[in-house]
Design brief:
Elements (H helix, E strand, L loop, with lengths): L1 H10 L6 H22 L8 H11 L12 H26 L2 H4 L4 H26 L5 H11 L4 H29 L7 H11 L2 H20 L1
Family: Belongs to the DedA family.
InterPro entries: DedA-like, VTT_dom
Protein name: Membrane protein
């Protein structure tokens, strides 16, 4: 009876909680979650940012949770899941067009699709594909959107690999660096993850500000 209760508790995984996912699936779970979040529309709700950062933190062994991950396999899993997922999403969009989004009833997903399309139109393929990596939901829907809009395969692949490596490895190494330098960082994990998620939006905010400033400059000259 005790064994059955213990087993059921192990199987009860909160897919919205990074630590729960890592405790249940470890490094392999990071690759699977990132693949689902960036490659499958049903994965738009998964916690990619916090998962990467928390996983990096747990590689230091200072989080006090008893769980410690290996950094090298984690980096490989994170990069592989992020890059393979994005490419898969693009290919699905190229084959199915807008039918994938049309079938979804999620208002959040459709809002993300509109933002993804705006990014592609405003900033062009290269910037939009890289910037989308740092925006939850948008990084899920931009990939099939790019496929449906027939973004050239080489262009998409080049920039999704660039953005994917910066995002996945950057957040993972950021968590590792913080865990290595701050004692008892586990006490501040939630606010730290919130700060990191905010910082991940800096590239997008900077680009929006620059775009608006340039537009005002053109209006003034006109």
């Amino acid at each position: 009876m005790t064994t059955a209760v213990h087993l059921s508790s192990q199987l009860a995984v909160n897919v919205l909680d990074a630590r729960s996912l890592l405790s249940a699936f470890g490094v392999l779970g990071v690759g699977v979650v990132l693949f689902a979040e960036t490659g499958l529309l049903i994965g738009f709700f998964l916690p990619g940012d916090s998962l990467l950062f928390t996983a990096g933190l747990l590689c230091t062994g200072t989080a006090g949770s008893g769980l410690r991950l290996s950094l090298a396999p984690l980096l490989v899993a994170a990069a592989s899941g992020a890059l393979a997922g994005s490419q898969c999403g693009y290919l699905l969009g190229r084959r199915a067009g807008g039918a994938l989004l049309a079938r979804s009833r999620s208002a959040r997903l459709h809002q993300g699709a509109r933002r993804a399309e705006e990014l592609l139109e405003r900033y062009g393929y290269a910037k939009a594909i890289v910037l989308a990596r740092f925006v939850p939901v948008v990084r899920t829907v931009l990939n099939p959107m790019a496929g449906a809009l027939r973004v050239p395969v080489r262009t998409f692949t080049l920039w999704q690999v660039t953005g994917g490596l910066v995002w996945s490895l950057g957040l993972t190494l950021g968590g590792y660096a913080l865990g290595s330098s701050v004692p008892n960082v586990d006490r501040y994990l939630l606010p730290t993850v919130a700060v990191i998620a905010g910082l991940s939006l800096v590239p997008v905010a900077s680009e929006v500000y620059r775009s608006r400033r340039d537009a005002k400059g053109e209006e003034a000259r006109g």
